[in-house]
Specification:
By secondary structure, the chain is mainly alpha-helical. It has helices at 16-32, 34-41, 53-73, 99-109, 114-141, 150-172, 177-191, 197-205, 214-244, 264-289, 317-325, 340-368, 384-403, 406-413, 417-456, 480-487, 498-503, 508-525, 534-557, and strands spanning 45-46, 82-84, 96-98, 262-263, 330-333, 336-339, 458-465, 471-476. A hairpin with a 2-residue loop joins strand 5 (330-333) and strand 6. The longest helix is centred in the C-terminal third of the chain and has 40 residues, at 417-456. The chain is globular, with a radius of gyration of 31 Å.
């Protein structure tokens, strides 16, 4: 019997297989709501701007990490059992090392494509953390963290923390001399914790350092625990993104109530899929062309040796820099030594910086009193104090990170490492203050420039000479689209005055809190340039048209008029 679709001429031809598939899909939709959810979100609109791709770089580099990690898992042996290496890398043949180190060498030299996968995995980890940092900068500087996205901002901070820990555990797995030095440093950091430090170290390492359990434990964390948390947080991050709708830049037709862009299918899905292959291809090129983590040059870990110039991966460099430049502060109490020179840079500063990052949306919301929902982004220049705060934090991070290479800087530039250390001790405090002041004044200057363009138009580059010999440049009004974009922002709120607060009848703690908030808000918005009103723009345009007519009259009557001269 031939398998021919049946039809009665008035309904589409169907097959039994299609009918069964439709029945299964209908059964699933009635119980899980998948079809309804797909119909609702399949045409969801996403705005189109290059800055929104920074988050996608983080997402796709994480996918590359998962793919390459699965490959490496098939050959890596997470054991600290000591064996004699007899692989194909001749300089280390016959050397005793852990099974973890030996399997890393086997992946690098004896597994087809193993070295490429190792290097792709390591480069993808670098890209993952770097892109998360840059994405968070974009979110903060454009005000995308404001209500209703505060929870998503906290999730992003936790993703950055987990990505850093994941990078450290993966970096430690090969058990080479450099990664072993990093694990040894981690053991010292834990032991610097008052009262419970030695217990923490003993629990993690299964005895005295290095023990024989740290690599298997890091392996379980690296391939199971932390990736599971990362996947859960990324899923929550994406679901909140869909629920809140995407932020967008101001422009004609864009409001707080809509999103202007392309639908999920087919446009955005195709663009996102293509971007994944770009990220994958760039990571593959880096893995194939640029060497990274060449463990065979360092050899297996030996607790009696330390690699000269040893440094952690770049994202762990800033606390290492603080550790290098902090004075040797210690306190001795009741026979116990409290090592402030280890506690402050390693155990205090990283959690403190993370808490500051997580609190930024709530601090700004409390200070400004802004409880509205925001879906339009701000240009960084229109929030000078916010931008300056982030630049100050970036300066602190960058100087601390540079201090982590003080020995390399001293060697390469032929400088004294002591002088570099003393300079960095002052720079990490003075540098952020200078960066804050310069950035804030810069943003305010750019605001004034925008105001000048709105009121007086843009410079056309055409110079006109008057009959008296004076020169003037011809200004033209801004196109309506650009003018709309520059004015599509809210005026800054006006802080309460002390008189208003006193008149409100507030007393006690509430009175003090409101006065403090008013003073801080006054400083936060001080010198900001508000957008011109519609009347000011109309008056300026009328004045500009009058000046333009005068210039055109001077061109027609002056010495630089066009056409034959009168005799």
């Amino acid at each position: 019997m031939s398998k021919v679709a049946t039809t009665n001429g008035s309904t589409p031809a169907t097959t039994k297989g299609a009918q069964r598939a439709g029945a299964i899909a209908n059964w699933a939709d009635e119980r899980l709501g998948l079809g309804s959810a797909m119909k609702k979100n399949i045409r969801k609109v996403f705005p189109d701007h290059w800055s929104f791709m920074l988050g996608e770089i983080a997402l796709w580099s994480f996918v590359v990490l998962l793919l390459t990690g699965v490959f490496l898992t098939l050959w890596f042996d997470p054991s600290m059992t000591e064996i004699q290496y007899n692989g194909s890398y001749d300089p280390l043949r016959g050397v005793h090392m852990s099974s973890a180190m030996a399997s890393t060498l086997d992946i690098s030299f004896d597994v087809r494509g193993g070295l490429l996968m190792r290097q792709m995995h390591h480069w993808a980890a670098m890209i993952f953390i770097a892109s998360m940092m840059i994405h968070m900068l974009r979110v903060y500087l454009t005000g995308a963290f404001r209500k209703p996205r505060e929870v998503n901002w906290i999730i992003g901070c936790l993703l950055l923390l987990l990505g850093t820990i994941e990078g450290f555990t993966g970096y430690s797995l090969p058990d080479d001399l450099l990664s072993g030095t990093g694990v040894r440093a981690a053991d010292g950091f834990m032991k610097a914790t008052p009262v419970v430090g030695t217990y923490m170290s003993f629990f993690l390492f299964g005895g005295e350092f290095p023990g024989d359990a740290i690599i298997p434990r890091f392996y379980a964390m690296h391939i199971l625990l932390i990736p599971g948390l990362l996947l859960a947080l990324i899923a929550a991050h994406m679901l909140l993104l869909v629920y809140h709708k995407h932020t967008q830049w101001p422009g004609p037709g864009r409001t707080e109530q809509n999103v202007v862009g392309y639908p999920m299918l087919p446009v955005y899905a195709a663009k996102a899929g293509g971007f994944f292959f770009i990220v994958f291809g760039v990571t593959a090129l880096m893995g194939g062309l640029f060497s990274i983590n060449n463990v065979w040059k360092l050899g297996p870990y030996d607790p009696s040796k330390v690699t000269a110039g040893s440094q952690p991966d770049w994202y762990m460099g800033w606390p290492d820099g603080l550790l290098r430049i902090i004075p040797p502060w210690e306190t001795h109490l009741w026979g116990i030594t409290i090592s402030w020179n280890v506690m402050l840079p390693i155990l205090v500063m990283p959690p403190l910086m993370l808490m500051i990052l997580m609190a930024l949306p709530f601090i700004e919301s409390w200070l400004t009193g802004d409880k509205r929902e925001h879906h339009l982004l701000q240009r960084p220049r229109n929030a000078p104090t916010r931008t300056a705060i982030m630049v100050a934090l970036m300066t602190f991070y960058g100087l601390s990170w540079a201090a982590g290479g003080n020995d390399i800087i001293a060697i390469k530039l032929h400088l004294s490492i002591n002088q570099i250390t003393y300079f960095m001790r002052g720079a990490v405090f003075i540098g952020p203050v200078i960066a804050f002041i310069i950035t804030r004044r810069w943003c305010i200057s750019l605001q004034r420039h925008d105001e000048g363009k709105l009121l007086h138009g843009f410079e056309s580059g055409v110079l006109v000479r008057s009959p008296e010999g004076g020169y003037a440049e011809k200004h033209l009004p801004l196109p309506e689209g650009q003018a709309y974009t520059l004015t599509a922002r809210d005026d800054d709120p006006v802080p309460e005055t002390p008189e208003q607060i006193e008149a409100s009848g507030a007393t006690g703690r509430d009175l003090r809190a409101r006065k403090l908030r008013a003073r801080l808000a006054t400083l936060f918005f001080a010198d900001n340039v508000q957008k011109p009103t519609a009347e000011e723009i109309h008056e300026a345009q009328h004045h500009a048209e009058h000046e333009l007519h005068e210039l055109e009259s001077q061109i027609a009557a002056g010495p630089n008029r066009h056409g034959p001269a009168d005799h």
